[in-house]
Amino acid sequence: MLERFHLYRRFALFIGTFEPRKNIPSIIEAYSAIADQVEHDLVLAGSPGWLTGPIKQALAASPVRDRIHYLGFVSNEEKSALYHLADLFVYPSFYEGFGFPPLEALAAGTPVITSHNSSLPEVVGEWATLIDPYNVGELALVMQELLQHPSIVTEKIKNQLITTYSWHRTAEQTLEVLESVA
């Protein structure tokens, strides 16, 4: 997988649709600020969405553009491998309805930085590091800290994720709601 994508260094990862609410220019700006202090590259993967101009501008303007890898669309198999290979998953979204990518990263054992807004704190709980998505300086500091001093997603945390977000539990909760309105 690393050879396929020409990834020869350890890396921080973002996976998601490229659109304004994902806050990708802030990821690029924060990474650019710390790149000379970390050994990691930055990998951005996902399909183009709408209004991608600011993302392209941020990539072009980055002084460390050669250390930022845009992969475009990745298959589910490739996405799973990238989650497992990354040292950090960065997802400072301005808004999420649910937020599957941070959960997928955590389930793969990858530490996560995500936003303290919308559904994300409820979804990732205490398992991720929460930041203000409007504060690029904070994002840069937390990225640097977690890349230089990695946190561990333990088996206990993975098991908590599986228990919390199992299909069985979802079915039980759905049945409870249906029975309460019947």
Strand order of the largest sheet: 3-2-1-4-5-6
List unreliable stretches of 5+ residues.
none
Mean pLDDT: 92
Helix/strand class: alpha/beta
Number of strands: 6
Q: Estimate percent helicity.
A: 40-55%
- The 3D shape can be described as globular
Strand content: 5-15%
Instruction: Work out the helix count.
Output: 8
Give the termini separation. Answer: 51 Å
Biggest sheet, open or closed, and with what strands and sense? 6 strands, parallel
**Quaternary form:** single chain
Radius of gyration: 17 Å
Order of helices and strands: EHEHEHEHEHEHHH
Structure description:
The chain has helices spanning 24-34, 53-61, 76-85, 100-107, 120-124, 136-148, 155-164, 167-181; strands at residues 11-15, 41-45, 68-72, 88-91, 112-115, 129-131. It has 182 residues and is an alpha/beta fold. A 6-stranded parallel beta sheet has the order 3-2-1-4-5-6, sandwiched between helices. Helix 5 (120-124) links the parallel strand 5 and strand 6 (129-131). Helix 1 runs parallel beside helix 2 (53-61) and helix 1 crosses helix 6 (136-148). The longest helix has 15 residues, at 167-181. The chain is globular, with a radius of gyration of 17 Å. The mean pLDDT is 92.
